[in-house]
Structure formats: structure tokens, C-alpha cells
Amino acid sequence: MRIMGLDYGSKTVGVAVCDPLGITAQTVETITRKDENKLRRTLARIEELIAEYEIERIVLGYPKNMNNTLGERAKKTEELKSALERRTGLPVVLWDERLTTVAADRVLMESGVRREHRKESVDQIAAAMILQGYLDSLANAR
């Protein structure tokens, strides 16, 4: 089963997919958004990637606050979840993404990627970390 991971931000959406066996997550791309309140182009690109990779489920990063409360960003994520389910007909799982962007940035920093180039990859890596966390939880449940 192919699963897609998304790191949804106000300006970008990081995209990752798993291998056909559902073991590892790989980065795909970063979708740049022109307007935070307009999702049409973003959803259209996600639908193209769903078809290309034959995706059966989506894991969407859920940005909880450190004290486990939900803020404005979490509400926007819930709206995206509803829109994705309506448009694609696929199940969308919300997955706690606390600190994934920080961890992704640290990975890039430790890999020697210069600051100006980190922005290009950080959302994709965060999406892969979200998806890998979900895949690992599935493997541990077996």
C-alpha cells in the first residue's frame, strides 16, 4: 500500500511517499503556495501526485502545541483534511508532527547544507519524518 505524507504550512506543503512495501518514506517535492487561503492549486497538485504514485492513504502532519492543545494552524490542517477527503475519497490520518520541522532542519544542518538551501528541502524532509513515524507505528502494531 502506497501512503503519502504531507507537511502542511502556510506557504509550502512538503510531500513524501512510502515505498510499495510501506517500509520507508522518501521525499518527493515541495508545493509552493501563493496564497494561504487558496487551496485549489495545492489540492490539484496533490491529486496529480496521488495518481502518479497510486496512493491509497494520506498522513497529514497535525501541528499540536507542545502542551498538547490545538491552535490556529491545527484548525487549518483539519480544514485541509476535510478538503482532501472530499476531493480524493482517500482516508486522511492526522499525525502528531511536533518538532519535525526542527528535526528536519537539524538533519540538513548536520549534513552541511547551507542555510539558504535548507529552505528548499526542509518541508519535504519533515513530510518524510511524519510519514516514517506513521509507518514505524504500523510496523510496531504488527
Layout: helices, strands, pairs:
Layout: E1 2-8, E2 12-18, E3 25-32, H1 40-53, E4 55-62, H2 72-88, E5 92-96, H3 100-110, H4 115-141
Helix pairs in contact: 3-4
Q: What is the residue-mean pLDDT, rounded to a whole number?
A: 89
Rounded Rg: 14 Å
Task: Find the count of extended strands (DSSP E, 2+ residues).
Answer: 5
H-E order: EEEHEHEHH
Query: In what order do the strands lie side by side in the largest sheet?
Result: 3-2-1-4-5
Number of helices: 4
Which structural class do the helices and strands define?
Answer: alpha/beta
| Range of helix content | 40-55%
Segments where pLDDT lies below 50 for 5+ residues? none
Q: What is the rounded distance between the termini?
A: 15 Å
Major β-sheet profile: 5 strands, mixed
Overall form = globular
Hey, roughly how much beta strand do the residues contain?
Answer: 15-25%
Write a short abstract of this structure.
This protein is of the alpha/beta class. It has 4 helices and 5 strands, in the order E-E-E-H-E-H-E-H-H.
Could you characterize the architecture of this molecule?
The protein is α/β, with parallel strands linked by helices. A hairpin with a 3-residue loop joins strand 1 (2-8) and strand 2 (12-18). The model has no long low-confidence stretch (mean pLDDT 89). The protein has a 5-stranded mixed β-sheet with strand order 3-2-1-4-5, sandwiched between helices. 49% of the residues lie in helices and 25% in strands.
Label this structure with key terms.
single chain, alpha/beta
